[in-house]
Amino acid sequence: MRNVTLELTILFDFYGDILTEKQRELFDLYYNEDLSLAEIAEHLGITRQGVRDSIVRSEEILRNFEAKLGLAEKYGKLSDNVKKITRAAERIMIINDTNYRNFELDKCASEIIELTKALED
Q1: Which CATH number goes with the domain that contains 25?
Q2: How far is the C-alpha of 3 from the C-alpha of 46, rounded, in Å?
Q3: Per residue in 35-83, pLDDT tens?
């Protein structure tokens, strides 16, 4: 089961700038600040239905951009692959240290680990 809130907040991180300032504010209050529709409506002096409509529209916009561009999905895959590469390089270092003690192999594996850490930052 996927976490819809997490999915939407990730999409917001990628595409939030395309929303209007008001949409960003309402989305942030609802998803990041965990305020209810009624609390947001009272705080901003608008109707609960107006808050809901804006949030639903924002969700639709974010999902449409992800469907077209796929940046969040690509980032997730890239992040997973970087972790796999790091683990493989660490295994190479262990095998090298245990069996071969090849300085050049150790240097290459270390360089791979450094590069993957830079990608994660």
Answers
A1: 1.10.10.10
A2: 28
A3: 999 999 999 999 999 999 999 999 999 999 999 999 999 999 999 999 9
> The tokens 């916009």 sit on which residue?
61
CA distances from 108 to 4, 25, 33, 56, 68 (A): 41, 47, 45, 49, 38
Count of CB atoms situated within 10 Å of the CB of 86: 18
Claim to verify: residue 55 and residue 105 sit in the same structural domain: no
* Dihedral angle, C-alpha 1, 79, 6, 11, nearest 10 °: -120
Instruction: Give me the number of domains the chain comprises.
Output: 2
Rounded Cα–Cα distance for residues 99 and 44 (Å): 67
